[in-house]
Write a structure and sequence with these properties.
- Helices cover 0% and strands 57% of the residues.
- The protein is an all-beta fold.
- The strands form two sheets. Strands 2, 4, 5, 6, 9, 10 and 11 form a seven-stranded mixed β-sheet that branches. Strands 1-3-8-7 form a four-stranded antiparallel β-sheet, with no helix packed on it.
- The protein is elongated.
Length: 121
């Protein structure tokens, strides 16, 4: 099976920084894209940032210029560097991987368990 394990969340003051990591493991043939989503209380889950196997990135408007997504292909790991954090960034952050389990097998989405990021003074 496939597991996505997130780390790096926590409590930070406004203006502070955090770096999230997500490592994918298991019987993975290839990973098309990886990304981060977040869900705040009472709100829908939203895309924060994503990166393709070719290195193309996509960011939510609310985090452009503050968050940077990066990927280590050799480690099947995706990172989210967050700076200038705001209270409105408070949410549970979920790692996502769009991957194949074998040659010719249709890609499937996998999710991490989620990690809390709290921005508060």
């Amino acid at each position: 099976q496939v597991q996505l394990v997130e780390s790096g969340g926590g409590l930070v003051q406004p203006g502070g920084s955090l770096r999230l990591s997500c490592a994918a493991s298991g019987s993975i043939f290839s990973i098309n894209a990886m990304g981060w989503y977040r869900q705040a209380p009472g709100k829908q889950r939203e895309l924060v940032a994503a990166i393709t196997s070719g290195g193309s990135t996509n960011y939510a408007d609310s985090v452009k210029g503050r968050f940077t997504i990066a990927r280590d292909h050799a480690k099947n790991t995706v990172y989210l560097q967050m700076i200038s954090l705001k209270p409105e960034d408070t949410a549970v952050y979920y790692c996502n991987a769009h991957l194949r389990l074998g040659l010719g097998v249709p890609p499937t989405n996998y999710w991490g368990q989620g990690i809390q990021v709290t921005v508060s003074s």
